[in-house]
Amino acid sequence: MRSWNSSIIDSYQIQESFLESDDSVTHGSIKALSLNEFLQALAMALAARNIETWEHSVLVTKYAVMLGLRLGLSEEEIKQLRMGALLHDIGKIGIRDDILLKPCRLTEDEYDRIKNHPEIGARILEPAKALHSIIPIALHHHEHFNGKGYPQGLRGEKIPLSARIVSLADAFEAMTSGRLYRRAMSLQKTLEEIQLESGRQFDPYLGHAFVEMMEENIR
Ligand SMILES: [Fe+2]
Question: What does pTM read for this prediction?
Answer without folding.
Answer: 0.85
